[in-house]
Write a structure and sequence with these properties.
Elements lengths: L2 E5 L5 E4 L4 H8 L5 E3 L4 E4 L3 H10 L5 E5 L1 H9 L3
Parallel strand pairs: 1-5
Antiparallel strand pairs: 1-2, 2-4, 3-4
Length: 80
């Protein structure tokens, strides 16, 4: 199953995926992570460093951008 990324209204990055120990370990390596029980997703800071780290950690995974994909791409290109 894919890793789903979206940018929340509060500017944070939200990540969800079916439970996988390795993926959870990767998320927990990112400073500022938080599990949101109500929505069953990980909340991460919405900054360029986080986007870069996500791109590095999940380079081998299928990634689906639920919303705001243009923002992620601009971060990766250094435009933000």
């Amino acid at each position: 199953m894919a890793v789903q990324l979206r940018r929340a209204e509060d500017g944070s990055v939200r990540v969800s995926f079916p439970y996988d120990y390795e993926r959870v370990r990767k998320i927990r390596s990112i400073p500022g992570y938080r599990w949101v029980e109500a929505t069953k997703e990980w909340q991460l800071p919405g900054d360029e460093q986080t986007v870069d780290k996500l791109a590095e950690l999940f380079a081998e995974d299928d990634v689906v951008f639920e919303s705001g994909a243009d923002w992620f791409i601009r971060c990766l290109m250094g435009d933000i």
